[in-house]
Amino acid sequence: MNNLSITRASQRRPLSLLVKSRVQSRVVFVDMIDISEGGCKIRGSRGFAQVGDRVLMKIDGVNAPLGSVAWVEDRIAGVAFEGEMHSAVLDHLCKGKSAAVCSDREDSRRTS
Q1: What is the pLDDT of residue 101?
Q2: Domain tally, the chain
Q3: 3-state secondary structure the chain
Q4: CB 75 within 8 Å of CB 43
Q5: How far apart are CA 52 and CA 56, in angstroms?
Q6: For residue 86, what are the domain limits?
Q7: CATH label of the domain that carries residue 77
């Protein structure tokens, strides 16, 4: 599936973190590439996930909502959260990161 064809309810913000996750019941360390209230994009080793796999993640000490893999392309996967991650939690995750990462949220507020 081409991930460009998936519509998103919220804008993704870049976030570069190593995240301990569980894909199905296996512990997997992945690189988080970006995140939004409704999901995230992660990179792992080849074959680390398949579409439909259940995903649990702890992101910088914060438990993300339960998710499922929506698409996989090589080592990159998109995860759709079953609930939403509150925008204040996303702000917390961005805190201390580069100004460019955190400013994406402010830019989206101004254009809304």
Answers
A1: 40
A2: 1
A3: CCHHHCCCCCCCEEEEEEEEEEECCEEEEEEEEEECCCEEEEECCCCCCCCCCEEEEEECCEECCCEEEEEEECCEEEEEECCCCCHHHHHHHHCCCCHHHHHHHHHHHHHC
A4: yes
A5: 13
A6: 3-111
A7: 2.40.10.220
Alpha carbon of 18 to those of 8, 42, 43, 52: distances in Å?
A: 24, 9, 10, 22
**What is the token pair recorded at 12?**
């993704």
pLDDT of the chain along its 112 residues, tens only?
Answer: 445 445 556 678 888 889 999 999 899 999 999 999 999 999 999 999 999 999 999 888 888 999 999 999 999 999 999 999 988 888 888 775 543 444 443 444 333 3
pLDDT for the residue numbered 108: 40
Question: What is the structure's pLDDT at 8?
Answer: 53
Q: Which two tokens stand for residue 79?
A: 């995860």
Instruction: Output the CA torsion sign for 84, 86, 92, 97.
Output: positive
